[in-house]
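[Automated response] Your request has been received and processed.

Submitted sequence:
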Amino acid sequence: MMDLPVEKWKAYVSQKWASLEPFLKEKLSHRPPSLRDAFLLSSSLFNPEDEEYLLNLSKSYCVGKDPSLVLACKEEGNRRFREKEYRPAAMLYSRALSHAEAGGPEMALCYANRSAALFHLGQNEVCLEDIRRAQEGGYPERLAPKILLRKAECLLSLRRWQEMTEVLGSVETAVSAGQGLEAPNHQVLLHKLTQLKAKACKERSSLAPRPTLTGGTEADSEPWKENSHVSCASSSVRLNFSTHKGRHLVATADILPGELLVREEAFVSVLRPGKQLLRESTAKVMLDRASGTEDLHCHHCLRQLLASIPCQGCSYAKYCSHVCAQLAWKNYHRRECPLGGLLLTLGVFCHVALRAVLVAGLAEVRHLVKEWSAESLAEAPAARAVTEGDAVCIPGCDAEGRYSSSYRSAFSLLPHSEKHSPEFRFLCSLSVAALCKGLRDSGLEASFLSKDAADNHNGGRAAEAPLELEVLGEAMLRHMLQLQCNAQAVTTLHASGSEAGLVASSEQVCLATALFPVLSLLNHSCDPNTSVTFSGQTAEVRASQPIPQGQEILHCYGPHRCRMGAKERRKSLRSQYFFECQCPSCTEELGPKSRNEASPGEDGFCCPTCNTPMQGKRLLRCSSSSCTALLPEEGFQNRLRDLRQLTKTAMELL
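Generated structure:
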């Protein structure tokens, strides 16, 4: 499971757990300590041997730049291009770019080569972007006519006549001047230039202009009235709280199928690396391996990409545009970049936990840790609503009672510390301790704290760095435990087929792991009344059936009645989410015996005369030899049904 650390680290930590002194196990097992205490204890147990083992594991993931791979990937891309395998060629040029030195001559050549592959794939707009990058990166002037002709052909296909005319003029000037070209190439370019001018003249005179397309999308034009109390949610829902269900959303009006109920951008999301990358990452594998999600999607916005912009510091992170690259670098990646191999080793949950605190900022993290650590248990504030006067303050809401897709709401999600196994808590605690040690050793701790020090004008802040690292460690451990129940898998369809565009097959793949604070409000049902789709890192929740006013909005956490039986669903939900599903599908499939209460008719019903268990089926007999009570099971079942209805009503009133 890519969300958790790699198998070798899990096995190593498991062995370390087994060898712990009994009193240490006792501290970490019975009545789980606070998250701060668990982090501090694990940090004290993380020794140099553990660190050395973990660093050796992380070295197997090639995330640094390897200049030797630039030429190898480029030459293999050229070979694929000659064989007209344009898509693999484009990916190999992208791989070469990820290892090229920023601003170096190889980078401009790789952009130009990739533009040729993109041109043959019909990706004219992206091709033009790569030509611009090649020119800005110092593409050799003697080769300029080649990419200018390609640029003119793209502009012709896009019917951008004025720009095309200007480019053709530049090509004609360069070719006429010779510009370092040998005679054969000179003649070839002149011939191509003549052909292109003739083609442009013919198309411009014979074809009517294309109608102007509006920039709006269906989602943009769809009516949307946002909820005044729950950001990213429709006004058709409201936030409720009960001790039985916790926070949940309820319909405030009758909702029709297809109606948009939630549209939320992830607070943080982290791409799941391809399985092949995690298995081995030697230079040969990096050259030959198939493209994984880390090659096919932007590491910031998750949108699909064919022509990536590489990170300037590592070979792993790739982006769909310079805008995404700059946003990622500013908000989190400049601190993650030196830790690339370590983060891949520690797993996606650990990475999401780090990114959450980086995006939130130390001041916000410190404030919330201090606010919530006043409670005896870390999750106590989220376990109940607090009444202030006549108002009910639902956990995660701000001072105005608004629940938003914010770090406060993400922080308020339950970590379920007491429900995780002691060994799993130890794995998470030791992994977070290792990550904090990596932050300190890389000098990233100081850079993370320096901005906060400047904001507070506190010259002595550096002396408090160990204390601040405890705050970060506690928050990251909280998030890592939260993610077991609150992580949302972002899915997408990956299609395969010919380069002509004929799709042979498609499969749904898990693209990333993300935190959606508003989406996390939805409780589970094995037969939900909503469906969830993703566009990049934006989730949309729509009604899949009519939802009457007052009915709860329900989402499926994975186990669905159409895919598995009730017993299997309950087992899966119990192991990951720590609850016994009582949705109508489960209770109907398994019958009344499936409920948490004792099994009726076996040892669940007691004799009304002597309080001894009844035995038998249909006609129940008291098990006491001195009692002769004989009563039909139906009467007990009717009374039990009435009691359950009364209990349900009472819980709702409470």
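Summary generated for your ticket: The mean pLDDT is 83. The chain has three domains: 7-60+267-488, 67-205, 567-653.
If you did not submit this request, please reply to this message.
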